[in-house]
Structure formats: structure tokens, C-alpha cells
TrEMBL record:
Functional description taken from the UniProt entry: Catalyzes the pyruvoyl-dependent decarboxylation of aspartate to produce beta-alanine.
Pyruvic acid (Ser): residues carrying this PTM: S25
Listed name of the protein: Aspartate 1-decarboxylase
Pathway: Cofactor biosynthesis; (R)-pantothenate biosynthesis; beta-alanine from L-aspartate: step 1/1
Domain of life the protein comes from: Bacteria
Main localisation: cytoplasm
A single MF term (Gene Ontology): aspartate 1-decarboxylase activity
Originating organism: Andreesenia angusta
Amino acid sequence: MYLTMFKSKLHRAVVTEANLNYVGSITIDSELLKSANILPGEKVQVVNNNNGERFETYTIEGEPNSGVICVNGAAARLVQPGDKVIIIAYAMMTREEAESFKPSILFLDEKNRIAEIKDREVHGEIK
């Protein structure tokens, strides 16, 4: 049996653009993708802290070290530049793999630079 487990997260990323006329996806600074262990084309869930919207899309690489977080296509109606979002990737793994797996959790600052990296979340911690 495979379990769907939390694999990676960009926590409190700031949306820099919303492009309704693009065909779809979310453009993310390629260095953030690498650091979070998220591949171009990988399915992600996006949670908007400002309005509660949740949606799924796939990633495309943005300019490295640009801090770009651009929601494209129809999902652009669900965000505004300046909104804080959580971008989450999941992975299918066996129970044995899941028991030892450590996720990549990137806490970002206001300019979408990495402020901290962790490999677990603790209930009650506020970031």
C-alpha cells in the first residue's frame, strides 16, 4: 500500500504576480524549487492565507534568485499580488519509506528568500 505524504513546502511565499492570460501553472523561482526538492512540472497544492482559497496546479521554473511566485491561468483569479501562500508538494511512498522520510520545509521572508529550512513541523509553532 502507498501513502500520500507531505514532501515539501514553501511556507508563506508572497505572490509577486497573477497572470490570467497564461495557459496555467505556478511560476516559482528555480532556486526555491531546487531547495524545496520540487521539480518543474510537479503537482502542487497552493493555499492562500489571505482568502482561504486552495487549488492544485503544476510548477514551472522562474528566473533563479528572482523571488518570483506567479500564479498563472484561471487560478490567477484566486490570488492577488502580495497575498501569502503556502505551496505544498506530496509524494506517494510505502509505509516503510514514510517512517524515515524527512520533508523539506522552507520558511520564506517578505522577498521570498529562504529564512529557515526545517525537516519537520511542530504543533503550536508559529511562523
